TrEMBL record:
Keyword Nucleotide-binding: yes
Keyword Nucleotide-binding: yes
InterPro entries referenced in this protein's UniProt entry, alphabetically: AAA+_ATPase (IPR003593), DNAC/IstB-like (IPR028350), IstB (IPR047661), IstB_ATP-bd (IPR002611), P-loop_NTPase (IPR027417)
Gene3D superfamilies recorded: P-loop containing nucleotide triphosphate hydrolases (3.40.50.300)
Name of protein: ATPase AAA
């Protein structure tokens, strides 16, 4: 006769509820039967229960983090053809997917390139890999986030809205340079970049090189300050390839595309040079607010 009938199973269930050990509550009876049958030492039985509780807890946490990440479905590393973007090192991407190092430092990752080149796919795939490693990620279209933050600002809750984003080790801002100034006032984006600087990471995808980000921010000085902060600790991928869909529709051909000319430090100077030209525009813009 085994020992199980000698304890009050119902009371044990209540205690395990109270202790918030749902997995042990679920499995202990089967494990106890097996332990009794096979003569496990008590310590092995206890360790087995603890291990299962922890493993299940991890699984549930990752499931929650996946749900909250809002990643586009089906964009994984497994189905990303690295040979279509020969300028990107798969080994470097894999290293980024571990998250250690850059996410701890609040460093950024920026993906540039023309539409269809796989920026969104790669960003989502990296996000997914990071969630699977236990990091917290939020994927959002930049315009959606700008709208949310603007609403928060109107309600005098911008700071707390940004503080809520702090729980995400990585914020993926897809289609960054799609924002146009007349769409809305985007200084909230600048505030977000400043708030996360050297603390929490951003992954930005953009069709436009830095030189054209003057369309994103209310004035060139803000563009310059934003770019400065973003690139201070950043990895930059230039995915200057033809649209993947178009290419796969045509006969298969891969190439290195245009040489990387987007993101040299010169870009910062270009923005500075453009500043005078844009001053008039900028002050118009400021007057609107
Ligand atoms: P972008 O964000 O640069 O405009 P997307 O990531 O949306 O491009 O890519 C367009 C489509 O092509 C998507 O369906 C994406 O999954 C697919 N795609 C792009 N690049 C690759 C790639 N290297 N391997 C597999 N699929 C790709
Ligand atoms: Mg995209």
């Amino acid at each position: 006769m085994n020992a199980t009938p000698m304890i009050d199973a119902q009371r044990l269930s209540l205690m395990l509820n109270e202790l918030r050990l749902p997995t042990i509550k679920h499995i202990w009876a089967d494990f106890a039967a097996q332990a009794d049958k096979e003569g496990w030492p008590a310590s092995r039985f206890l360790a087995a229960l603890a291990e299962h509780e922890l493993a299940e807890r991890d699984r549930r946490r990752i499931e929650r983090h996946l749900a909250e990440a809002h990643l586009p479905a089906g964009k994984t590393l497994d189905c990303f053809a690295f040979d279509a973007v020969p300028m990107i090192s798969k080994a470097q991407v894999m290293a980024l997917c571990a998250g250690d190092g850059w996410l701890e430092q609040g460093a950024n990752l920026i993906l540039f390139g023309p539409p269809g080149g796989g920026k969104t796919h790669l960003a989502a795939a990296i996000g997914l890999a990071l969630v699977e490693r236990g990091w917290r990620v939020l994927f959002t279209r930049t315009s959606d986030l700008v709208q949310r933050l603007q609403v928060a600002r109107r309600e005098l809750a911008l700071e707390s809205a940004m503080a809520k984003l702090d729980k995400y080790h990585l914020l993926v801002l897809d289609d960054f340079a799609y924002i146009s100034r007349d769409q809305a006032e985007t200084s909230v984006l600048f505030e977000l970049i400043s708030a996360r600087y050297e603390r929490r990471s951003l992954l930005i995808t953009a069709n436009q090189p830095f030189g054209e980000w003057n369309r994103v921010f209310p004035d060139p000085a803000m563009t310059l300050a934003a770019v400065d902060r973003l690139v201070h600790h950043a990895t930059i991928f230039e995915m200057n390839v033809e649209s993947y869909r178009r290419r796969t529709a045509q006969a298969r051909r891969t190439g290195a595309g245009r040489p990387a000319a987007y993101t040299t430090p010169k870009v910062l100077e270009t923005i500075r040079d453009n500043q005078d030209e844009n001053d008039e525009l900028a002050s118009d813009n400021l007057n609107r607010h």
